[in-house]
Design goal:
single chain, alpha+beta, Rossmann fold, Tumour Suppressor Smad4, 2 domains, 6-stranded antiparallel beta sheet, globular, binds adenosine-5'-triphosphate, metal-binding
Length: about 300
């Protein structure tokens, strides 16, 4: 009998994780899986729980958003235990990339009938990310959003509209693998392991989760019209086709700036890093995830 542990973040998705964990656990139990549920008690707890439990489980399922998925997946690096996801956040970028349904019942069925896929575990200055990470306006928004009361898409859009006019592009130098560096003035620099931020907003359309490379998308300072076009292109999944946008690809991406440190984001959660920034994929860190399709 396969052993499945659900790790649910009770604060994700405005508190709906308990119900989602219980419903999905009961569906797996009815299909002859041995199930248990653990709830996180603080930020970072999911990684500790996974490190304690992974040797006793076949599958560990993150019930939450990308922040919870990040913590569970981080704990799985170096183990053979498979990652499952019951999406319960506001963006659910990695779950959407994996075509996992947003309905809890269907996502639970996907845990039973889905396909195993290799998932790279890239790092930014030695901290893992699985979906996207980067610096610039989106990272700034993740820091502003973290200080707001309440979460959800509505608050996220509120933060974007409030900060848009006052945020200025920065000068960066970018080097890929062993190549020489290029100078890039950018409003947003996002590194994709998976393609999207969440909510089907695709910032790195050619990112593939198990191909051992990262895709960097650089957006210059936009005017209002350009910003609106990018908004449409994110959802049309073709931001890379815009003539103002530069994309880069590598196993190792270095980003530097004259500042000492920078506010970044890892899988949508705010983080602060020292320059130079090193985004890196290593084959030995790859884990396995349950997807709804092989086209990831
Ligand atoms: N018990 C807890 N109390 C407070 N914070 C927690 C707890 N468990 C986990 N967290 C933190 O909650 C944060 C948000 O979690 P998560 O990203 O899963 O949900 P979300 O913000 O609703 O979804 P999304 O990232 O898709 O917007 C994570 O950074 C995680 O570390």
């Amino acid at each position: 009998m396969k052993k499945v542990v659900f790790i649910a973040n009770p604060v994700s998705g405005n508190g709906k994780a308990k119900k989602a964990a219980e419903l999905s656990a009961s569906i797996l139990k009815d299909n002859a899986f041995e199930v248990s549920i653990k709830f996180t008690e603080y930020a970072g707890h999911a990684t500790t729980l996974v490190q304690q439990l992974s040797s006793k489980a076949d599958i560990i399922v993150a019930v939450g958003g990308d922040g919870t998925v990040n913590e569970v997946a981080t704990g799985l690096v170096g183990s053979k235990t498979v990652l499952g996801i019951i999406p319960n956040g506001s963006g659910n970028g990695l779950a959407r990339h994996l075509k996992i349904p947003m309905s809890t019942k269907k996502a639970a069925e996907c845990l039973i009938h889905g396909k195993l896929q290799p998932l790279d575990a890239p790092t930014i200055n030695d901290k893992f990310f699985f979906c996207t990470a980067g610096v610039g306006f989106d990272a700034h928004i993740s820091h502003v959003f973290a200080k707001m009361e309440g979460r959800g898409l509505k608050n996220y859009i509120k933060a974007i509209l409030k900060e848009y006019g006052s945020y200025a592009s920065q000068d960066y130098t970018i080097s890929l693998d062993d190549s020489s560096s290029v100078n890039q003035k950018a409003f947003v620099l996002t590194v994709g392991n998976a393609a999207q931020y969440g909510n089907e907003a695709v910032i790195a359309p050619n990112a593939r989760i198990g191909d051992g490379t990262l895709e960097l998308t650089a957006l210059p300072q936009p005017n209002l019209i350009r910003g609106a076009i990018w908004g449409i292109r994110l959802f049309m999944k073709n931001i890379d086709k815009d003539s103002s946008v530069n994309t880069f690809r590598g196993k190792e991406i270095k980003i530097n700036n004259t500042a000492q440190s920078v506010d970044g984001h890892r899988d949508g959660e705010p983080d602060t890093w020292e320059y130079p920034l090193l985004f890196q994929v290593k084959q030995e860190n790859q884990i396995t995830v349950i997807a709804n399709s092989t086209l990831v």
